[in-house]
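Sequence only, no structure available. Ideas?
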Amino acid sequence: MPSATFDIYYRIFNTEFNLSFFAPKKDQCDLCESYKNVTGEDQIKLKECYEEHLKQKTLSREEKAKDIELAKENEETVVAIYDLQAVMPVPIGNSSAFFYKSKLNCLNFTITNIKDNITNCYFWHEGLGNRGAVEIGSCVLKFLKETAERYPNSNIIFYSDNCCGQQKNRFLVGMYYYAVETLPIKSITHKYLIRGHTQNEGDNAHSLIEKSIKRAKKSGPIYIPYQYVQFIRDSKKTGNAFVVNELNYDDFYDLKKLFEDITLNVNKDLQGNQIKLSEIKSIRFVKNSETYDLKYSYESEWISVKSKATINTRKTRSDNNLHISELRLRAAYNSKLTISDKKKNRICGLCYKKYYSKMLFWILRKFVLNIFICCLF
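Reply:
I predicted one. Tokens follow.
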């Protein structure tokens, strides 16, 4: 019999039979997979923890859906979801030389504002900053400043995953306290999604960007970080385009020094119990309050903590009455970060072998095009 076209096959397979090919998810929950694989007494021991895990997963998603509806109805509520995208290396291409050589890591941090349906992307590479609490907190602080200007005196709610090294640590907590006290913001609440079930709007944005990069790679190698910036800007075809903020080394704040200056209490709550930052599910800061609140479960009550946010007098003896708003944010880096000689030599080796000839042509073509546009206008 004559064969049908791919279009006919695709239409019949997906519409008349309601079938599709299963694509397994990249990230699976460790606890859920462990419970499925164990049997007998081991499964019985794990059952209580597994059921509580599923309960918290359901509560977190219900809480998120409720906050999103509140943000749409209430002008004073802003819900934002942020996440760090997987590392994007340069150069990458089909040549084996690109595969075996060390690459420059590029980073993209996204914050999606649910109220405006706008995603802000903060882009930098490892020669300008790392990917720790200082960089993540600096991006969030920049977002808070912009949001405070657009929606003054608002209540801001953040959602993210549970990565302790990036957003679940004392430096981010200190930054939240500083922001709520110095910016026109009523309160800042951060709610952490349950580990293994952190699918959110940030993943959707990252998926669009990765598809755009995958399409671009078919046209040729990716040589320089600026190409990623263009791909991110062009990745969303409908709705509001992604807003890309290209960061330099002097755009990052020294949040570790800021935490030392305000001496925020992250040790014990009002009941004298030890604070476990890694187990927190929610944390809330309210302007002009002597305490802040936290939760270890989505169904539990808020636990109050004495902030003790006084300026470190050991380092500011000249003015013991200095207010937190008078603290000056210092830059985390005074110059570009040093890349290892081994990585630098390998990347430069690609230039010597003329693998970058197309890149030079691409830059020259863009330069000539800009001159031509300027002449027209």
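The longest strand covers residues 104-113.
Hope that gets you unstuck.
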